[in-house]
Amino acid sequence: MKQGVSHLLAAALIYPLTGSVPAFAWAPQGHEIIAAIARAHLTPAARAKSASLLGGDSMFVLVASWADEVRDARSQTAPWHYVDIPLDAKGYDPRRDCPGGQCVVAQIEYDARKLGDANAAKPARAEALRFLIHFVGDVHQPLHAADHGDHGGNDVIVHWGRQRGSLHHVWDQTVVAALGADAMTVAQNIDASLTPGQRLRDSGGAPADWANESLADARVIYGQINGPYLARDYAQRQRALVTDRLAKAGLRLAALLNKILK
User: Fold this and answer.
1) What is this structure's pTM?
2) pLDDT tens-digit profile of 162-213?
3) Cα(67)–Cα(197) distance, integer angstroms
4) What whole-number distance in Å separates Cα of residue 165 and Cα of residue 153?
5) Angle between helices 104-116 and 207-224 (to 10 degrees)
6) Which CA distances in Å does 43 have to 48, 74, 252?
7) pLDDT tens digits, residue range 31-84?
8) How many CA atoms lie within 13 A of 252 on its CB side?
9) Angle at 237 between CA 232 and CA 240, to 5 degrees
C-alpha cells in the first residue's frame, strides 16, 4: 500500500513539470482504492479462491497495478488498458472501437472466461485475475474510454495553480489524490458512504456498459474545459464524479469475481 502511494507522489512531482504522462489509468492509488472496495464485497468463497490464486489475501490490493508494471516488458498488452470510443459516438461499437479484440472491454471478457476455466493452469488463471483487478478499474477511468484525437487527454496540457500537466494526468492522479493520501482509508470512506440501494444498483452491467458510462463522463469532463487553465480547486470540484467511478469499479469488480469464483 505504501509503495503504491509513494509511486503516486513521485509521479506527481515529475509529470506536471514535463507535461507528458504515460496512458495509465488512476495510477497506483486509484487502483488500490478500487481493489480495496472490491475485496470488501467479495463472498467468502471468492475471497478465498482469489487469495489462493494470488498467494495471500493482501495480494488482492497489492497486485492492483501489476498490469501497468509489466506493460513495458509486454508491449502487446498496451491496447488492453483502454478503448477508443469517439467522443461524439452513441456508444461502444466493437467493430469500430475494438478491432481484433484489442481493447479493455474485450480483455475483461477474455480474462473473465480464462479465470472461470477450471481446466486452465493455476498460473494462467492467476494472471487473468491480476489483469481483471486492473482492467475493471481502467474501463471506469473516463479518459480511457473516449477518443477526442488527443490520446485520452495526454496531448491536452492544462494548468492548475502552480502545476502543469496533461488532462490525463489530472484524471489519473490529481483528482484521486485530492480524496486523501491513504488508499485504504479512502476506500473505507467511499464504501461507508454508499447506501445498500447504491451497492445493489451499481454492481451490475457488462464491460461495454461500463465503457459507455465512462464515455458519458468524458463528455462532461471535456465540456468543462475552456482553455488550458483549470480552477485551482478543480480536483475538489470533481470529487463526486471520481468517487462515483471508483465506487462503481470496486463494486462491479466484486460482483464479477463473485459470479466467476463461486
Assistant:
1) 0.90
2) 999 999 999 999 999 999 999 999 999 999 999 999 999 999 999 999 999 9
3) 32
4) 10
5) 150
6) 8, 32, 13
7) 999 999 999 999 999 999 999 999 999 999 999 999 999 999 999 999 999 999
8) 27
9) 155
Nearest to 254 by CA among 179, 191, 192, 177: 191
What residue type is 34 in one-letter code? I
Check residue 160 and give left, alpha or beta (phi > 0: left; psi -120 to 50: alpha). beta
Cα radius of gyration (the chain): 17
* Spatial distance between the Cα atoms of 40 and 36, rounded to a whole number of angstroms: 6
How far is the C-alpha of 152 from the C-alpha of 129, rounded, in Å? 25
d(CA 40, CA 142): 24
How many other C-beta atoms can be found within 10 angstroms of the C-beta atom of residue 91? 14
**180: Cβ–Cβ under 8 A, 6 or more apart, which residues?**
186, 189
- C-beta separation of 103 from 84 below 8 A: yes
| Cell numbers that stand for 1 in this block | 500500500
User: 246 near 36, Cβ under 8 Å?
Assistant: no
149-160 per-position pLDDT tens digit: 999 999 999 999
Q: How confident is the model at residue 227 (pLDDT cuts 50, 70, 90)?
A: very high
> If you search the block for the grid coordinates 515529475, which residue do you land on?
14
Domains and CATH numbers, the chain: 2-260 (1.10.575.10)
